[in-house]
Amino acid sequence: MSLKTIRRIVTANDPQGRSAVRWEGPAPGQHENAQFAGRGHTDFWVWRQTPQPLAGDVDTGLWADEFPGPREGGHLRVVHWLPGNDVPVVKPHAPKPSADGRSWDRGGGNNCSISDMHKTESVDFGIVLHGERGLVLDDYETVIRPGDIVVQVGAWHLWDSSRVGCHMAFDMISADFGPGRDGVQQGDAQPLQPPAGLQLPAGVRPQRRIVTIDREPGRSSLVIDGASPDVRLDASRPGFALQRMWVVEGHPAPIVPETLRLPHVLVPPANGTVLNVMTIPPDANWRGRASEVAARAWFESIGAGSVATCGSIPGNPYSKQSSTVDFLVVTEGELTLLLDTGETRLAAGEIAVVRGGNYALGNASDRPAVVAVASHDAVQE
């Protein structure tokens, strides 16, 4: 058994400035474990500077493996873990740093279905695509399933996929633990809770958000495990919802327990990132009632009027273009990525990297699609 291939779309702007597909097909950046066939990871995109460059003809998903990602940037990858618990587990031990001093492990894993208890100098968005995974902290354990999102804020943690195996996407953003290298919580912000009585549209499920952090050296803690507390709807699109998950305020990524008091929704802060989960209803639900005026008003309502390009893509007024690199990770249903030069479909488990191009998200199917969108600040060079 070899690593499962996962389809990837990468866009770029053509010489006329129009958004277009640059690469499409199985993501080529595969790294298979030498000991366990089918275990390993696939890199989808890597960046070595923040903000990221928008242009370039190099497929950075093919760059050499680096963990936890470049110090001045990060990476988007999918890890492939196998089921089974017949491989001996390494005994827990005192924390050991990696050669570059940016990750640490305490043993307890088998490198097949169970990871070591470890921490990395990064803030990670972990998105389950297939199967399930046990998440183990020093003070909490839970099981995560497709669509669940874990925000690891530099915390100690262990992953257990021994029951069924899993594929899980990780957008890992470099941090700086600073003096002492403990990577403990900065500040005392309290996690936000969903407002009482919040009613989601038909077809929209609450988005699970699990946030972890080290409140004291050497010990990880759960910050919150619950539904996103920030939901944005659109009266012109029945069945649409944007559920905000996390904001990385700058680079290096801060080690803080909550970020959703920041105002950024679609547009990230300078040198930062914003993660949203969108439920995209079937186009038939809103076609004929959502005008360009209504679409622009929706962008304005979430502070993103500057990126709205409503009317630039025929048939879908909800287009946008920003100086960002957007990672689109489809977790449910089938999405249509509409570009200036055409469109392509993305099914659950597939990923697109949109580099500063004009685009809209549609849904030609008869059921909702769900996509996690991580927008990273970027620049034209």
Compose a concise summary of this entry.
The chain has 381 residues and is mainly beta. The chain has two helices and 26 strands.
Protein described:
This protein is mainly beta and 381 residues long. The chain contains two helices and 26 strands. It has one domain: Jelly Rolls. It has helices spanning 283-286, 292-301; strands spanning 7-13, 19-26, 29-32, 40-47, 52-53, 74-81, 96-97, 103-105, 118-120, 122-131, 133-136, 141-144, 149-153, 158-160, 166-174, 208-216, 219-227, 230-233, 241-248, 273-280, 324-332, 334-339, 342-347, 351-355, 359-362, 369-379. Strands 1, 2, 5, 18, 19, 20, 21, 24 and 26 form a nine-stranded mixed β-sheet that branches. Strand 7 and strand 8 form a beta hairpin. The longest helix is centred in the last third of the chain and has 10 residues, at 292-301.
Secondary-structure topology with pairs:
Layout: E1 7-13, E2 19-26, E3 29-32, E4 40-47, E5 52-53, E6 74-81, E7 96-97, E8 103-105, E9 118-120, E10 122-131, E11 133-136, E12 141-144, E13 149-153, E14 158-160, E15 166-174, E16 208-216, E17 219-227, E18 230-233, E19 241-248, E20 273-280, H1 283-286, H2 292-301, E21 324-332, E22 334-339, E23 342-347, E24 351-355, E25 359-362, E26 369-379
Parallel strand pairs: 1-24, 5-26, 13-16
Antiparallel strand pairs: 1-2, 3-4, 4-6, 6-15, 7-8, 8-9, 10-13, 10-15, 11-12, 11-14, 16-17, 18-19, 19-20, 20-26, 21-24, 21-26, 22-23, 22-25
